[in-house]
Amino acid sequence: MAGNQHQNATGGESSLTVYILFLETCGSDSRPNILLLMADDLGIGDIRCYGNDTIRTPNIDLLAKEGVKLTQHIAAASLCTPSRTAFLTGRYPVRSGMASKNINTISRVISGLGVSGGLPRNESTFAALLKKEGYRTGLIGKWHQGLNCKYRSDHCHHPLHYGFDYYYGMPYTLIPPCWPDLSRKIEFTANYNLWICMQILVGIVLTLFLGKLARWVSIPWLLVFAMVFLGILLAYSWLWSASSPLYWDCILMRLHEITEQPMKAERAGTIMVEEAVSFIQRNRHGPFLLFFSFLHVHTPLPTTENFIGVSKHGLYGDNVEEMDFMVGQILQAIDAHGLRNNTVVYFTSDHGGHLEARIGHLQLGGWNGIYKGGKTMGGWEGGIRVPGIFRWPKVLQAGRVIDEPTSLMDVYPTLASLGGAALPRDRVIDGRDLMPLLRGDVPHSDHQFLFHYCGAYVHAVRWHQKDSGAIWKVHYVTPRFSPKGAGACYDIDFCQCKGENVTLHDPPLLFELSRDPSESIPLSRATEPLYNLVIRKVGDALRQHHKTITEVPQQLSDYNKDSMWLRPCCGVFPFCLCDKEDGDAEAGALP
Question: What is the pLDDT of residues 524-560, one digit of tens each?
């Protein structure tokens, strides 16, 4: 394959020798610490080391310079919840019911903290595997895999049930009501005042009513009824205002405790970085696994004042540059404790940039480089091709570039290998151990076929024809782009997976990604001699893949319905208002 020109023919043997020497130096039982950094909605074209020349990302670029860069790194889904499910479990999300059959786009992710759906408890995450092997495990940041099942504090889908020893972050995901902060302050103040007024009114009314019964006071009943009616109006006003998702979905938690409701989104990232630094300090004697799941760069792009206006691309560019700064702070903590050489660092995004995220002509979503499509699009490269960078000094060759197809699902078996854990044998694991490829021991990825889902439906299939080096892509279904252009679905906010807003292709669309990575010129029987062979080969593989899929409860269809009684509350319901950070970004004495 042409992309292998970056790989040294003798690199495999020399890298393996270095790896063995490293283990001999550190001890055969010395396992690396693991730091996983995942951005949210970051386009592959948003960082300099993947082609952007106008947004500054020096810390991520340095990671690529010091480590191995994957150029064909693929997410298993083009939306947050299913992509992260696949990342955590090494399995296509349809296997765990975390892929929706509904047309409605919001049903393709966990749609709030008042739903009962979530990652099934019988699924095994990489954190659970490594925890059994003695790793201290932590998740800081976005979760988006569910929270409650039967009541508002059962926390049945909380990260601590999936192998993480420590959690601080946002159990849901950023949504527009979370920021800007002005609306939060207004609503908070108004509701607090309404609450006080309502308590006073209730007290007055009860006093007058009891006084009337005891003949202590004499007051017209009409006035009593008027005051009761006024109290009801105030209560209704409070409940109407508090029905905003700002209160129920924009929250932060430490372990099982809600620390902010609603959260102050502009400071959340800073607190999370300090939590990460604290986790590294507490567990510096290792081994540890830290999964830092950024809220950046998801809309509404909450950004601190220090980074407002620093980029050439408005608020989105500012948010990307702030994220890169945070990457640098976490890496500095690794260096400060002398952990650099024995820590595997991995950086990626959960899927491609959100092309439909706009306010008028202002773009609030990412750029996916030369690749067509973006977030929510099941098959086009722009929605699923993401950054993939691994750094492990003295083990992985610095500056190496690998063009082989790899997947976010590969992280699961790779971490199992690094941590000395055995993979489960009672389920299909779709990921493959990346270490032989990263070290240069083998020339090709283990993946022959990758299946690109939109919800619970396969839209496209990738075939790596290793004997020729060709990478074929067959599209069975594609979203209908807006006639306004730009390769997005502006008319419906998000691209859909089925129905009137998709196109079924018979015969399928065929592209050869090695020659046409932008998927701009479909091949046909007239232009490609291997067309029939490829279509037949991929069709056979898809049929075999479908045979491996077992029906399970659909978490994003059957259990993705909001219930007031499942919404988390840090106070006495419905007065769910708290800020336990006291204006500081400090982590307490934690495990």
Answer: 999 999 999 999 999 999 999 999 999 999 999 878 8
∠191-185-268 over CA atoms, to 5°? Answer: 120
**Are the C-beta atoms of 34 and 375 separated by less than 8 Å?**
no
Q: What is the DSSP letter of 424?
A: P
The C-alpha angle 15, 47, 175, rounded to 5 degrees, equals: 120
Residue 213 CA to residue 207 CA, distance in Å, equals 10
* C-alpha span between 117 and 1 (Å, rounded): 43
- Which residue's entry shows tokens 């759906």? 117
429-452 residue pLDDT tens: 999 999 999 999 999 999 999 999
**What residues form DSSP beta bridges with 120?**
none
265-282 vs 314-336: helix axis angle to the nearest 10?
20
Backbone phi, psi, residue 248, to 5°: -95, -25
Cβ atoms of 2 and 514 closer than 8 Å: yes
Query: Is-catalytic flag, 80?
Result: yes
> Which tokens in the block code for residue 207?
């006093």
Residue 153, C-beta contacts closer than 8 angstroms, at least 6 positions apart: 568
Which one of the listed residues 80, 250, 489, 497 is annotated catalytic? 80
Smallest CA-to-CA distance from 194 within 231, 225, 166 is with 231
Secondary element (H or E) of residue 472: strand 470-479
The model carries a pTM of: 0.88
Which residues contact residue 290 at a Cβ distance below 8 angstroms, ignoring those fewer than 6 apart?
33, 34, 35, 36, 137, 138, 139, 140, 276, 279, 280, 283
Over the chain, what is the mean pLDDT?
Answer: 87
User: pLDDT tens across 150-174, in order?
Assistant: 999 999 999 999 999 999 999 999 9
Query: Active-site residue among 6, 26, 49, 144?
Result: 144
Per the annotation, the verdict on 354 as an active-site residue is no
Q: Does domain 2-175+269-447 have CATH number 3.40.720.10?
A: yes
Q: Tell me the pLDDT tens digit for each residue of 330-345.
A: 999 999 999 999 999 9
Domain chopping of the chain, boundaries:
2-175+269-447, 182-244
137 DSSP β-pair partners: 289
